[in-house]
Design brief:
The protein has 164 residues and is mainly beta. The protein is 0% helix and 55% strand. The protein contains no helices and 14 strands.
Amino acid sequence: MPRKFLISLALVSGLVGLSVHADEHGHEDDHLSTADDVRLLHGWTRATTADNALVFVEIENTGSTPVTLSGGAAELAESAALVGFTLTDGKPSYPELPGLPVAPGTQMVLAPQGVALRLDGLSRDLTEGDRFDLTLDFAETEAELTVEVEAADATQHGHAGHAH
């Protein structure tokens, strides 16, 4: 059973939870993308007609040195920024974050009400069952993945929790 560690990032108006745990996976399916020492698993977002969307993904650092997630890009969005969930006076918001390091041999999970990649200026609606390509930018490399669009009220990727 993997050990889990919870890291909290203090923001000016709240707290952002970031789940990190050491893990070994033998994952070899279409939910996996790799670049250098970075493995991306289960990229997903929610269906929306808005001009922005939050993308969630599991990021593993299989190397021996830290990697730093700094942002991303997608053809269907004008911009992509790393953001963290906060609650201010009962209202949720996602302020931009600086780059976040992923320690060697650990996993960072971008998840609802936590850290995410916000796509702004979407050129089209995202419908359940849709897919699109996304590039995550790290200080050390870039990693491409396919993002699956889940239901508008999804709280996790439809395949999340299956054995890897």
